[in-house]
Amino acid sequence: MDGPQLSQSCELSLPCCADGGPLSSAKAPQVSGVRVQLEMHALWQQFDQLGTEMIVTKAGRRMFPTFQVQISGMDPAAEYVLLMDFIPVDDKRYRYAFHSSSWLVAGRADVIAPSRMHFHPDSPACGAQWMKQTVSFDTLKLTNNLLDDNGHVSQCL
What's the CATH superfamily of 11-83+117-154? Predict the structure, then answer.
């Protein structure tokens, strides 16, 4: 399965505004210049090249490698809430073919359930706090349990 490719610079884009439009300084001046740089980029590249997959369970699993970023360009005095969400890269369901050691398309994916975002435990915090050190989502767990009430991010894949 060809998944999304990590770029060489690996600068992550910020999500769009709540109305679905592009992020612009007229709508949100506090985030217009924010930049997010992925930490451990080389390790993420290795996992991407190997096609490493993760088994998601009902109890929940922590991501590895841990998602860690350096943030710059925030207004030091403004308060920010950081959260993580996952969205499918396509509308297909995949199955693993052991004989060929590859992922094959096995039909259309289920209807996407409403996402459950994971709020960073330090949120809200001022921009100066977010920018002074690496921000880690190490408490994030992924689960395939749609009825999870532990704050885990539900992903039925």
Answer: Transcription factor, T-box (2.60.40.820)
Rg over CA atoms, the chain? 17
Write b or e for each residue in 98-115: b if 16 or more Cβ atoms lie within 10 A of its Cβ, otherwise e: eeeeebeeeeeeeeeeee
> For residue 92, with 0-12 CB atoms within 10 Å meaning exposed, 13-18 middle and 19 or more buried, which class applies?
middle
Residues of the chain with pLDDT under 50: 1-11, 13-26, 156-157
Residue 141 CA to residue 154 CA, distance in Å, equals 9
pLDDT at 157: 38
What is the pLDDT, as a whole number, of residue 5? 45
